[in-house]
Automatic annotation (TrEMBL):
<comment type="similarity">
    <text>Belongs to the nitroreductase family.</text>
</comment>
<dbReference type="GO" id="GO:0016491">
    <property type="term" value="F:oxidoreductase activity"/>
</dbReference>
<feature type="domain" description="Nitroreductase">
    <location>
        <begin position="6"/>
        <end position="58"/>
    </location>
</feature>
<dbReference type="InterPro" id="IPR029479">
    <property type="entry name" value="Nitroreductase"/>
</dbReference>
<dbReference type="Pfam" id="PF00881">
    <property type="entry name" value="Nitroreductase"/>
</dbReference>
<dbReference type="InterPro" id="IPR000415">
    <property type="entry name" value="Nitroreductase-like"/>
</dbReference>
<feature type="domain" description="Nitroreductase">
    <location>
        <begin position="68"/>
        <end position="149"/>
    </location>
</feature>
<keyword id="KW-0560">Oxidoreductase</keyword>
<protein>
    <submittedName>
        <fullName>NAD(P)H nitroreductase</fullName>
    </submittedName>
</protein>
């Protein structure tokens, strides 16, 4: 697991290659085991592989969402905020598991934040995405994850550059 986490980086360029159904099925099987508060599972996952919708989603935040445009697939993480007061945390957990599952299967991914973000035209990205994907009003959207076979290489994390100074024992140490 540590090797996987050290290797995982945000990938923004993807090969023109579809993700096989068996690979997607494994990702979904893994992510549906994600923990959630009181096992309420407030999240809903919208798997998008329609090229037209991927391009529209890729336009939602300008350059920040562009990785979706050349990805063969994206997963939108939405949640029923009435089901759980900590839907943001539960959605963030499942989104992270999507990225780790993707990495474990040789795919790259990139988290595109939706909640509290605006389109280049100053519209709510959440409303923009809901409109494209016909998501009911009662759902909130945390993020979109672009997925695909990487078409760029990034160096793995280096143990020497990890921010160990961010770790505190027993109390917050302000004397650094």
């Amino acid at each position: 697991m540590l090797d996987l986490l050290m290797k995982r980086r945000s990938i923004r360029k993807y090969k023109n290659r579809e993700i096989e159904k068996e690979v997607l099925d494994k990702i979904l099987q893994g992510v549906l085991t994600s923990p959630s508060s009181k096992n309420r599972r407030p999240w809903e996952l919208i798997v998008v592989n329609n090229r037209e919708n991927l391009i529209k989603l890729g336009d939602s935040r300008g350059p920040a969402s562009a990785p979706i445009k050349n990805a063969p697939l994206a997963i939108v993480v939405a949640a029923d905020s009435q089901n759980s007061e900590i839907w943001i945390e539960d959605s963030s957990i499942i989104a992270t598991v999507i990225q780790i599952m993707a990495e474990s299967l040789g795919l790259g991914s990139c988290w595109i934040q939706v909640r509290e973000r605006l389109t280049p035209q100053n519209q709510s990205v959440e409303d923009y995405v809901k409109n494209i994907l016909n998501i009911p009003e009662k759902y909130n959207i945390e993020c979109m994850i672009s997925l695909g076979y990487p078409d760029e290489e990034k160096s793995p994390h280096n143990n020497e550059t990890l921010p160990y100074d961010k770790v505190h024992y027993n109390e917050f140490n302000t004397a650094k």
